[in-house]
Amino acid sequence: KTGHNMKFETAWSKVILGVDIKGWLFDSMIGAHVLDNRKKTTGLKFQTFVNFGVPDYSSHIKQYLETDVPNGKNRVYEAPKNQLLLYNGLDSLFQYRLAQIQMKKIGFE
Hints:
109 residues
C-alpha cells in the first residue's frame, strides 16, 4: 500500500473506521520531502502538477471539501456523487503514479 501522508491516513482510518492499517510500503509525501525539501512543494496537488502537468483536478469539488472553521466538518456528503467519484479516482491514480516515480528516483524498488 502507498499513500500520501500515511500518518494522517493511519490516524483517520483508526478514528473513523476503527482499523489499523498494516503493511504500508511508501509515503509519497515523504518521497516529495526526500526529493525536494522546500516548503509548500510536497502536497499531492502540487506534485501532480509538477510531475504530470495537471494544473487542477479538484476545483469542481473544492467547495465540498473545505470548511471555514478550524477542524470543522466539510460538506463532502453533499457533493454530486459523480464529481466526488471522479475526484477520488484521480486523487488515487495520481498518488499511485507519483509513488512509482518517486520510488524509482530514490532507488526504493
